[in-house]
Design brief:
Largest sheet: 4 strands, antiparallel
Radius of gyration: 32 Å
Structural class: mainly alpha
Helix content: over 70%
Oligomer: single chain
Number of strands: 8
Distance between the termini: 98 Å
């Protein structure tokens, strides 16, 4: 009979022990999962040795509790998988993930299928369990734990896109592998193979069904978050409920992939959650999930390793050879995908190239971890699968996990040295040396001053610090511009986050702007100054969402998406303009000291050019919506005022000038003001067309009452920079009035004519129905009024004098 007291005692001791392993892993620079596995095996031996001892004492009671800790197959899946997958998906940068979508699909889905096939067909002639069981094992070991590789990439300053690539691969290959695992288990349970076409359909239905279910749960959670906002404990509870509900409802009721549902729901929450919850609550939610993930990951490794101790003594030499065969097949399949298929995507311009050294580290650092163990243990308790297959998968999967932890993980540092990744990049090393030298000089001055203040001898201060000329010979003029650019874009990201913490940047846009800074950093690492210029220009272009909103407004007269898109654009441009000015100050002060005057001056020129581009884009939107621009500026200043007011109240409280009751009352009033300041002003796209028509020279002498019928026939349009408004050779069916912006008329004989606000074009082809004789291209954001041919004829018939 289960003794709940002994079980709780055992679990409490386990959690205490795994908590003590974290500093040990950091001290010896080993993966935490390796130490957890060793701890689990040690506890398993303890249970086996002391299991028959007479009762008595807390240690014996703990051993008895461990003997009673037993989880069914479903328990491992339902209890441990949701927190593992949800936490990982919650920490993925979805916007950067979209940039690497093609590579993620390749590594996540194709690589899982390739690994399953490699392992399955490689082991099938070496074992007697059949092809389906070998393919099932291949699906189990296809899941990867990216923690080791991500840690390496962060240590060596690899491009952020590589970290995103590895994270996205691990997230989605878990989902794909578990879907494949479920299909193979179903085949074995039915006692026969499934038709290939049925298997493909089953895979797609399970995967897509989980995607839709997760989308629904994720959207529902974000709607509830909008209601909760400042209630941290309630928001955390909702997220936990959504993680487990999406998994259980998918698996148990809809028979779709609960894993895909969990991952999708977490990604939706990762994108929309920060816009629904206040920053402190969002951080609280993240911290809570990190705690749940730590418990789940730790208990999985310990419990699985305890079971492994019971199995490993009975492992034969033949099974050990099969473990090595699994390792060889898995590494071969991963190498095939990374070294053959990934370069193919690079040639097709679907992904940016990945260096051979990085690919080698990704291959060797593809450790197997908690998800692999959960799948193996869940199969162990599935009585519908023949016992010999369950033993086969459990032994080989557990053995392969131990192989990656005991052999691949410790040798990952050696692999880094072999491929030259253990050192900082030259530009990073140069920056490190420069900062170290300047810091030493500053510390020398301050320590000497402190010694003088305390009356200590100057010789004592001299002995404590390195010589003043340490690092000499490093000429500041030799610092590459790329070093300054890397420092600049790193600081830019910090400035966006600082604006968010100060509540002067909306939650709606902070993630978008921080992601753009990450893209800037990768662009500089990949292509230096040219990459920086391209990336900054790409930021200012109309996004796909904005172009779609423009199409909807232009063709379907649906203005709401365009209003939202333009509002986002205006706010992001205002913040980017502010940050660009702060970066110029940073370049002429901090960077000038570290990088030298020459590099700082070049950076100022770059920033001045970027600032000018931002101001042009901002002016184009601002001239179109002057009242809205003024409202947004007023909202920004209101946020600044409220933040200063908060600081003032806090200072008065700390100085004991007001009581906590008074402070709480003031904060209630501030909360209402913050809600109003964070409410975006409405953007009214309903135009005063008569007034705008009157600005065009053709109609500037007409009275208001005669402008009204003309205005009724016009409709507004917006052209983005570089858009070809009129194409030469096409039949004219409309004319255009330029209200704001500039266009270029490309003449047939060569040259261009610039047209500004108040101009009109396209009228001759409209009157004569002749083909257009020139191209007209927007030079910037242009606000146009369009008059269709049929409406033009109606206006002329109605107004003979016109």
């Amino acid at each position: 009979m289960l003794d709940i007291v002994l079980v709780l005692l055992a679990l409490a001791v386990l959690l205490l022990l795994v908590s003590l392993l974290e500093p040990l892993a950091e001290r010896f620079q080993l993966p935490g999962s390796l130490l957890l596995a060793l701890l689990g095996m040690a506890i398993g031996l303890l249970v086996d040795i002391w299991g028959d001892m007479p009762s008595g004492g807390p240690l014996r009671d703990m051993v008895g509790g461990l003997q009673q800790v037993g989880l069914s197959a479903e328990a491992f899946l339902y209890l441990f998988l949701p927190p593992l997958l949800f936490t990982f998906a919650l920490n993925v940068d979805v916007r950067l993930l979209k940039d690497e979508a093609a590579a993620v699909v390749l590594l996540a889905v194709v690589a899982v299928l390739v690994c399953a096939c490699f392992v399955g067909f490689f082991l099938e002639p070496l074992s007697d369990v059949g092809l389906i069981a070998c393919l099932l094992l291949g699906a189990v070991v296809a899941t990867t734990d990216p923690a080791a590789v991500i840690g390496v990439f962060r240590d060596i300053g690899a491009p952020r896109r590589l970290t995103t690539l590895v994270s996205g691969e691990s997230l989605f290959n878990d989902a794909a592998a578990i879907v494949l695992f479920t299909i193979f288990v179903e085949m074995l349970s039915m006692g026969g193979p499934m038709h290939a076409g049925d298997a493909v359909i089953d895979f797609l239905e399970t995967f897509l069904g989980g995607l839709l279910l997760g989308l629904g749960f994720g959207k529902a959670a974000t709607l509830i978050f909008g209601y909760l906002r400042t209630r941290g404990t309630a928001a955390v509870t909702v997220s936990v409920a959504v993680a487990y509900l999406s998994f259980m409802v998918g698996e148990h009721y809809f028979e779709v992939s609960g894993v895909v549902a969990v991952v999708t729901a977490a990604l939706i929450i990762a994108v929309e959650g920060p816009t629904r919850l206040v920053p402190a609550v969002w951080e609280q939610l993240h911290e809570a999930w990190e705690q749940l993930e730590f418990w789940a990951n730790s208990l999985i490794f310990v419990l699985a390793s305890m079971l492994a101790v019971r199995v490993l003594p009975d492992v034969t030499w033949g099974e050990l050879a099969l473990v090595l065969a699994v390792a060889l097949a898995s590494l071969s399949s991963r190498s095939l995908v990374l070294f053959l298929l990934l370069p193919l995507l690079s040639r097709l311009k679907l992904v940016q190239p990945v260096g051979a050294a990085f690919k080698a580290v990704i291959v060797w650092g593809g450790l197997r971890g908690a998800v692999t163990l959960v799948l193996a243990l869940s199969l162990e308790g599935n009585t519908a699968v023949p016992v010999e297959i369950r033993h086969f998968v459990a032994v080989l999967a557990t053995g392969y996990v131990l192989f990656t932890l005991l052999f691949q993980a410790p040798t990952l540092k050696i692999a880094m040295r072999v491929f030259g990744l253990h050192k900082l990049a030259p530009v990073e090393q140069m920056l490190r040396d420069r900062v170290l030298r300047l810091s030493r000089e500053e510390v020398r001055r301050k320590v000497a001053a402190a010694a003088d203040d305390y009356g200590f001898s100057a010789s004592l201060a001299e002995r404590l610090l390195p010589p003043a000329d340490d690092g000499k010979g490093q000429d500041q003029a030799g610092v590459p511009l790329e070093v300054g650019l890397l420092a600049l874009v790193a600081y830019e990201r910090d400035l966006y986050l600082e604006q968010f913490r100060a509540q002067t940047l909306s939650r709606r846009l902070v993630a978008q702007l921080a992601t753009s800074a990450d893209r800037l950093q990768d662009a500089v690492r990949d292509d230096g100054l040219a990459g920086y210029d391209r990336a900054t220009q790409r930021i200012l272009r109309f996004s796909r969402r904005q172009r779609l909103a423009l199409w909807l407004q232009r063709n379907l007269r649906w203005s709401r998406p365009l209003a939202s898109a333009l509002a986002d654009r205006f706010e992001s441009l205002v913040i980017t303009q502010l940050v660009a000015r702060q970066l110029m100050t940073y370049a002429r002060t901090a960077l000038k000291e570290v990088m030298g005057e020459g590099v700082a001056a070049e950076l100022e020129v770059l920033l001045a050019r970027r600032l000018a581009q931002i101001e042009v884009a901002l002016f184009a939107v601002e001239t179109r919506y002057p009242s809205y621009a003024e409202a947004l500026r007023a909202q920004y200043l209101a946020r600044v005022a409220l933040r200063l007011q908060d600081q003032s109240y806090q200072e008065r409280l700390e100085q004991a000038l007001i009581s906590r009751e008074v402070y709480a009352d003031l904060q209630r009033d501030q909360k209402q003001r913050w809600e109003q300041a964070n409410r975006r002003p409405s953007l009214d796209l309903g135009l005063d067309l008569a007034d705008m028509v009157g600005r065009v020279s053709l109609f500037d002498d007409l009275p208001r009452e005669r402008l009204e019928p003309i205005a009724a026939q016009l409709r507004p349009d917006l052209a983005v920079p570089g858009e070809r408004i009129i194409r030469k050779g096409t039949r004219g069916t409309r004319m255009y009035f330029l209200v704001s912006g500039e266009v270029a008329v490309v003449l047939p004989q060569g040259g261009e004519i610039e047209l500004g606000p108040g101009s009109f074009f396209g009228e001759m082809a409209l009157l004569s129905n002749a083909p257009r004789n020139a191209d007209v291209v927007a030079r910037g954001f242009c606000h146009l009024l369009v008059l269709e041919a049929r409406d033009f004829r109606r206006v002329v018939r109605a107004d003979a004098e016109l």
